[in-house]
Design a protein that fits this description.
about 700 residues; single chain; ARM-type_fold; mainly alpha
C-alpha cells in the first residue's frame, strides 16, 4: 500500500509485536468505530509487499471481507472524515489480500471489479495523497486479478477495459498504469477486449497514433512496440493509418540502429497483415515508402540468414517476411499497383536474393527443427514467392523440393500441431496477440500454388513424383473435401479450403496431361476418382460453387478417360450420377438470348456462368474435350446422354440462334460432342436427325457431323 509504515519483522525474528497488538484490537472491536480505528492501525503497520503470506493470511482471517465491503460502498463517513478515505481504506485492504493469488481469485474480490473500475475515473483533487494512494491500490488489485487464470475474463466483463481507456485518455494520476494493464489484457484476451470496449480502445488507438506521428524523441520507438497491440481485429480508422504511416516513414527513412528499426518493421508488418497495402498512400510518396519497406526487409532477411555464428532474431525476420509478401503482392498486381514498373523490377531482384537466403536456411534445417514456428514462417514466404515465380532460382528450388515434400507430409500427419504452429508464427511475427487474417494452418496450403506451376515442368515434376507428392496431395484433397461434405456447415468454411481444393485440381490436371501413366498405376487416384464421382452430383446443385464444380467435373472427365477400364466406371450408379452432373455443368453454360431490333436470338452465357467465365472457360472447353474422349471408351455413355436429352437440346439451341453469334471454338466444341455421340449410337443419330441435325450442321459448317448423320 501507499501509506508509510514500520517494517514487519522477519519470520526468523518472530512476529511483529506492534502488528499483533493491532490485530488483537481488531478482533476485540465491539462496534464500527473501534473496528475502523483498528483497521487504520493495521494498515499503518504493514505494507502488502513487506509481509509474508502467512502474516497476510492472518490479517485476512482477522479482517475478512465484510468490513472492507462496507468501506467500499458506504456513503456516510464519520464527521470530519472525507468519504473517499473510507473507500481508500477498503481498497488498501483488498490490495493487501490480492497479494495472495488465491485471494485475488476469490469471488469477494472479483465482485468488486465494477466498483474498483469506477475509482479509476472518479473526479477529485489530483494532488490529494489519499486519493493517489487509493488509485495505486486499485491498480494493484486489478493487476493481481489479471494475473489469475480467469482474471482477464472477469475484468473485461466488469467494465475494466473502458475504465482503463478513459483513465489513460484523461492523463490523470496513474494513467501510465492504466496503459500497462490494458496492454496485459489485450495480450491475454484480445477478441473479448475489443468486443466489450471497441469505442474506447479505438479512442486510445487514435491518441497513440497521433502521439506517434508527432513524437520526435525516443518515445516513438516505445510506441512502435505498443501500437501493434491496439490495432483492432476489424477496420483500422483511416486517420490512424495516416498517422502510423507518416510516423513510420520518418523513422525508417532515418539512419537507425537495429533496436530502433526492428520495432518499426514489426509495426509495419502488423499493418500489412491487418490492411494489406491500403494503409500506404497512393502516389510518389507511397510508392517510395513501400519500396523502402521491402528493401529494408530483404536486407534484414539476408543479414540474418546468411551470417554464420549469429543468433537469428526470428521475430524480426518473420515480420520482414510479411513485408516481403506485401512486396510480392504489389509487384504482381496489374491494376492500381502502388509501384511503378522500374520499382517492381528492382524489388523482384532484391526479393530474389532474399528468397535465395531463405532457401539456403531451409536446406540446413534438420528433422529436430521442423516443428519450429520460424521454419513454418520461412516455408510460408517461399510458398508465396513460388506462387508467382518459379523460373528464377530453379536449381535451388529443385534441390529443396525433397525437403518441402517431407516437411509438408510431417505437418499434414500432425495437423493439430500444424495449426498450432500457424498461431505461433503469428505471435512470433507481430505481437503477443493473433493478427487480423489468420495464417494458414498447414504447410501444404502454402505450397500448393507453387507446386501447381512446378508440375508443368519436367524436372520439378519428376522430383515431386519421386518424393511421393501426388499421393500426399490426394490424401490432402480427400481430407479437405470432407470439410465440404454433408454434415459440415460450408457457410462457415474459410475461403482457403475451397481455393486449396481448386488448386489441387489444377495440379491433378497437370499430372493427367503430363504423367498419365502415374494416374493409371497409383491407387490413390482411384480413390480420388471415386470421391469425384460421388461428390459432383450434389456440388453442381449448390449456389456459389460453380468454379469448384467445374474443376471437379473437368478433372473427373479427364481421369475417366485414363481409368475407363476400372469397374467403377462401367455404368455403376456412381459413374452414371457423375456423368449426368458433368452433362448438367457443360449444358447449362449458354442460352439463347433475344436482342432488341432483331428477330433472331444470339448465343450468350447464362447468368450463373457470365460473371466467372474468365476463370471458367478453359475448364469448360477442356471438359467438353474430355467428355468427347470418354464417349467411345464407355459404351453406356451415349445412351445415357441421349436420355438426358443433351444432344437434342444442344441442336435446338444452335437452331434458335444466329450462327454468326457462335464463335468458331464453340462450334468446334459442340461438333466434337455431337459427332462422337452420333458415331457411338444409332439412336443418337436418329434423335439428331429428328431435331434437324443435318440442317443445323450445314448452317454451322459442321462437315464431320453432317457426314456422320448422312450415314445409316
Amino acid at each position: 500500500m501507499a501509506s508509510d509504515c514500520e517494517p514487519a519483522l522477519n519470520q526468523a525474528e518472530g512476529r511483529n509485536p506492534t502488528l499483533e497488538r493491532y490485530l488483537g484490537a481488531l478482533r476485540e472491536a465491539k462496534n464500527d468505530s473501534e473496528q475502523f480505528a483498528a483497521l487504520l492501525l493495521v494498515t499503518k503497520a504493514v505494507k502488502a509487499g513487506d509481509i509474508d503470506a502467512k502474516t497476510r493470511r492472518r490479517i485476512f482471517d482477522a479482517v475478512g471481507f465484510t468490513f472492507p465491503n462496507r468501506l467500499l460502498t458506504t456513503k456516510e463517513a464519520p464527521d470530519g472524515c472525507p468519504d473517499h478515505v473510507l473507500r481508500a481504506l477498503g481498497v488498501a485492504l483488498l490490495a493487501c489480500f490480492c497479494s495472495d493469488p488465491e485471494l485475488a481469485a476469490h469471488p469477494q474480490v472479483l465482485n468488486k471489479i465494477p466498483i474498483l473500475s469506477t475509482f479509476l475515473t472518479a473526479r477529485g483533487d489530483p494532488d490529494d495523497a489519499a486519493r493517489r494512494s487509493m488509485i495505486d491500490d486499485t491498480y494493484q488489485c486489478l493487476t493481481a486479478v489479471a494475473g489469475t487464470p480467469r482474471g482477464p475474463r472477469h475484468l473485461i466483463a466488469g467494465g475494466t477495459v473502458s475504465a482503463l481507456c478513459q483513465a489513460y485518455l484523461g492523463h490523470g494520476y496513474g494513467f501510465d498504469q492504466a496503459l500497462a494493464l490494458l496492454v496485459g489484457l489485450l495480450a491475454a484476451a484480445e477478441t473479448q477486449c475489443w468486443k466489450e470496449g471497441e469505442p474506447d480502445l479505438l479512442a486510445v488507438l487514435r491518441g497513440l497514433s497521433e502521439d506517434f506521428q508527432k513524437a520526435e524523441d525516443a518515445s516513438k520507438f516505445e510506441l512502435c512496440q505498443l501500437l501493434p497491440l491496439f490495432l483492432p481485429p476489424t477496420t483500422v480508422p483511416s486517420e490512424c493509418l495516416r498517422d502510423l504511416q507518416a510516423g513510420l516513414a520518418r523513422i525508417l527513412g532515418s539512419k537507425l540502429s537495429s533496436w530502433q528499426r526492428n520495432p518499426a518493421l514489426k509495426l509495419a508488418a502488423r499493418l500489412a497483415h491487418a490492411c494489406g497495402s491500403d494503409w500506404i498512400p497512393a502516389g510518389n510518396s507511397g510508392s517510395k515508402f513501400l519500396a523502402l519497406l521491402v528493401n529494408l526487409a530483404c536486407v534484414e532477411v539476408r543479414l540474418a540468414l546468411e551470417e554464420t555464428g549469429t543468433e537469428v532474431k526470428e521475430d524480426v525476420v518473420t515480420a520482414c517476411y510479411a513485408l516481403m509478401e506485401l512486396g510480392i503482392q504489389e509487384c504482381t498486381r496489374c491494376e492500381q499497383s502502388l509501384l511503378k514498373e522500374p520499382q517492381k523490377v528492382q524489388l523482384v531482384s532484391v526479393m530474389k536474393e532474399a528468397i535465395g537466403s531463405v532457401i539456403h536456411y531451409l536446406q540446413q534445417v534438420g528433422p529436430e527443427k521442423q516443428k519450429e514456428p520460424f521454419v513454418f514462417a520461412s516455408v510460408r514466404i517461399l510458398g508465396a514467392w513460388l506462387a508467382e515465380e518459379t523460373s528464377s532460382l530453379r536449381k535451388e528450388v529443385c534441390q529443396l523440393l525433397p525437403f518441402l515434400v517431407r516437411y509438408a507430409k510431417t505437418l499434414y500427419e500432425e495437423a493439430e500441431e500444424a495449426n498450432d504452429l500457424s498461431q505461433q508464427v503469428a505471435t512470433l511475427a507481430i505481437s503477443p496477440t493473433t493478427p487480423g487474417p489468420t495464417w494458414p494452418g498447414d504447410a501444404l496450403r502454402l505450397l500448393l500454388p507453387g507446386w501447381c506451376h512446378l508440375t508443368v515442368e519436367d524436372g520439378p515434376r519428376e522430383i515431386l513424383i519421386k518424393e511421393g507428392a501426388p499421393s500426399l496431395l490426394c490424401k490432402y484433397f480427400l481430407q479437405q473435401w470432407e470439410l465440404t461434405s454433408p454434415g459440415h456447415d460450408t457457410s462457415v468454411l474459410p475461403d482457403s479450403v475451397e481455393i486449396s481444393l481448386q488448386t489441387c485440381c489444377h495440379i491433378f490436371l497437370n499430372l493427367v496431361v503430363t504423367a498419365p501413366g502415374l494416374i493409371k498405376r497409383d491407387a490413390c487416384f482411384t480413390s480420388l476418382m471415386n470421391t469425384l464421382m460421388a461428390s459432383l452430383p450434389a456440388l453442381v446443385q449448390q449456389q456459389g460453387r460453380l468454379l469448384l464444380a467445374a474443376n471437379v467435373a473437368t478433372l473427373g472427365l479427364l481421369m475417366a478417360r485414363l481409368l475407363s477400364t476400372s469397374p467403377a466406371l462401367q455404368g455403376t450408379p456412381a459413374s452414371r450420377g457423375f456423368f449426368a452432373a458433368a452433362i448438367l455443368f457443360l449444358s447449362q453454360s449458354h442460352v439463347a438470348r433475344a436482342t432488341p431490333g432483331s428477330d433472331q436470338a444470339v448465343l450468350a452465357l447464362s447468368s450463373d456462368y457470365e460473371g466467372i467465365w474468365a476463370d471458367l472457360q478453359e475448364l469448360w472447353f477442356l471438359g467438353m474435350q474430355a467428355f468427347t474422349g470418354c464417349v467411345p471408351l464407355l459404351p453406356w455413355l451415349a445412351p445415357a446422354a441421349l436420355r438426358s436429352r443433351w444432344p437434342q437440346e444442344l441442336l435446338q439451341l444452335l437452331g434458335s440462334v444466329s450462327p454468326n453469334s457462335v464463335k468458331p471454338e464453340m462450334v468446334a466444341a459442340y461438333q466434337g460432342v455431337l459427332v462422337e455421340l452420333a458415331r457411338a449410337n444409332r439412336l443418337c443419330r436418329e434423335a439428331m436427325r429428328l431435331q434437324a441435325g443435318e440442317e443445323t450442321a450445314s448452317h454451322y459448317h459442321m462437315a464431320a457431323l453432317e457426314q456422320c448423320l448422312a450415314e445409316p
